[in-house]
Amino acid sequence: MLTLAPLAGMAQIAKIAINGAGTEGAPGGIWLIALASLACLFLGLALIAAGELAAHLADNRLTHGLRRALVERLSRVPLGWFSSRASGEVKQAMQDDIGTLHELTAHYYTTLGRAGGAILFSVVYMLVVDWRMAIASLLPFPFYYLIFGAAKKAISEERMTQFVTGQARINNAVIEFVNGIPVVKAFGVSGKAHGAYREAVDAFTKAFLSFTQPLVAPLANANAIIAPVTVLGVVLAFGTLFVSLGWIAPVDVLPFALIAPGISGPLMLLGFISHGVANGTAAAQRVQALLETERLEQPAPGTLQVPAGTEVRFENVGYAYDGQNAVLSSIDLTLAPGTVTAVVGASGAGKSTLARLLLRFFDPTEGRILLGGADLRLIETSQLYRSIGFVLQDVRLVNASVYDNIALGRPCASRQQVEAAAQAASIHERILALPRGYDSVVGEDAKLSGGEEQRICIARAVLLDPPVLVLDEATSAADAENEAAIQKALSRMARGRTLLVVAHRLDTIMHADRIVVMEDGAVREQGTHAQLLSAGGAYARLWQSGGYADAVQEAVAP
Ligand code: ADP
């Protein structure tokens, strides 16, 4: 409002100059108005700067708080929640959505204040100067809303939906297209795959056109009506009329010519920022949803239990991912300390789910799992992961040196301990052959194969030295040398530990102390290799059907 005061000042100066030229005290009055106008201008600018600063500081604090709250929350969700879907959601909320909220916090209110203030000042000032001229000057604006409203109605609900689904389709097609490039190239069907993408693009273009076409003409008209030059034309036309009617003096038209055209800018700005509110609200809702994700139940203080020993016992355990269709049911299983238990079964039998339950990726929907007599749910999380280590199929190395990757769970381990762990995992020699040895950075100068990465994960688990280890063997066929190295590392690991192996290979199964055969989420039979073979049940059939690994492979790739 203050930055507009100079315009009113100018009109006033013009009035004094024309009406009062030559009269006593006129120059002094002009100077006073000029000085007051300048003061208002600078004070206004200072306030704008202060407002922007305050808004940005607030935004900074909010963003910081939200990011921290999200990280804090994510550290409490069940590990099983993290999937590729979840990482997309997390990225969207932590990067994109918080960025969108910046628009809202840092810019929305200051813009609303400035634009709203400018319009309010202009309207009130004009009404005070001359209400008839004020009404005449404001005439174009209601027309803008009439035309704009009619145009908005012209976009049917259906067209809007087409537009949005078109956008989603294009996003999916892009992902499919990029993911599929290697396969597509290798099999020489580029035309076809490009076709799906091109189709989505064409459909989107069509939807976009039908969405925007009815809008183009009315929008152009609406914008033309409130363009500053149109408003000035209206002011001058009515001014001329009113002067000729003798209602006002010519100089009285000046304030309106100066002020009225300036309303268009802030008015359009208000329209733009209302989009920002819609986007910001959607973003805030997604952030809120992430802040309200399920939390892994923490034991109440006082109910904490400390595992006594390393015996693992599943008691009548059942689990359903969706809460209804049980993937596991009535599992009773005891893993004796210092033994290796191999879980076998066709793909989809529930082997990985069983392993993840022991790692407390999620809690069983029925029954309980005990470690050393303590319910997993009542063991403090840090204690739990000190007791149970895991090496899973999807190897996760962080973007840091090989050394740091091995020492991830025990950052204060000595160099010797880290190297000993690497030796136990049969990866020491390979690391030494890297350009910067242990200091090579994963993904930069440490380019490792899948099997080598898994051995680094094994070294990480060895270093942590957990009394219980859960291992989901890689299904993908590693090369023979790698496979032998992994097997060697594992048998070293097995000594003196309680080991649960989701097995995909014969060697592991044969030497296991116990083999658990799973079928449709239940334990079908268990015993040693020899016992199960002589029993002539499911395991014997699996074994005789030409090798377990092949059977699993067949099930995986029907
Ligand atoms: P296995 O390891 O024996 O191949 P899983 O434990 O991976 O079997 O899967 C058992 C069943 O649970 C399968 O029917 C699978 O589709 C389902 N399942 C696995 N993971 C999920 C998940 N994250 N959400 C929903 N269902 C799942």
Automatic annotation (TrEMBL):
GO cellular component: plasma membrane
Domain named ABC transporter: residues: 312-545
InterPro entries xref list: AAA+_ATPase, ABC1_TM_dom, ABC1_TM_sf, ABC_transporter-like_ATP-bd, P-loop_NTPase, Type_1_exporter
Stretches that traverse the bilayer: 30-58, 108-128, 134-151, 225-248, 254-273
Membrane topology: Multi-pass membrane protein
Gene Ontology MF terms in the entry: ABC-type transporter activity; ATP binding; ATP hydrolysis activity
Positions of the ABC transmembrane type-1 domain: 1-279
SUPFAM superfamilies: ABC transporter transmembrane region, P-loop containing nucleoside triphosphate hydrolases
Keyword list, A-Z: ATP-binding, Cell membrane, Membrane, Nucleotide-binding, Sugar transport, Transmembrane, Transmembrane helix, Transport
UniProt-listed Pfam families: ABC_membrane, ABC_tran
Subcellular location: Cell membrane
Primary location: membrane
Protein name from the UniProt record: ATP-binding cassette, subfamily B
